[in-house]
Model the fold of this input.
Amino acid sequence: MAHKTITISEEAYRSLARLKSGKESFTDAILRLTSQRGTASSLLEFLQNLPASEELAQNVETSMERMRKNKLQRVALG
Done:
């Protein structure tokens, strides 16, 4: 298997290290996280690893309200 060297910030390294599971390698963690990109489960997992934040909670609630409102406004044409 070929290997590549990448440079990331200390902040990115610490963030990725927190998201690793048990003895999972950084490669395995990156593959797991990127393969689930865009899924509800990956978003939930990401949010569960963040510290509690009133601002984040409010932003999520606002986004959910907007989504509900947009669904109600959709009209089937044709």
User: Anything to note?
Assistant: The CA atoms of residues 54 and 60 lie 10 Å apart. The chain has a mean pLDDT of 83. The chain has four helices and no strands. The helical segments are 10-19, 26-35, 40-48, 54-73.
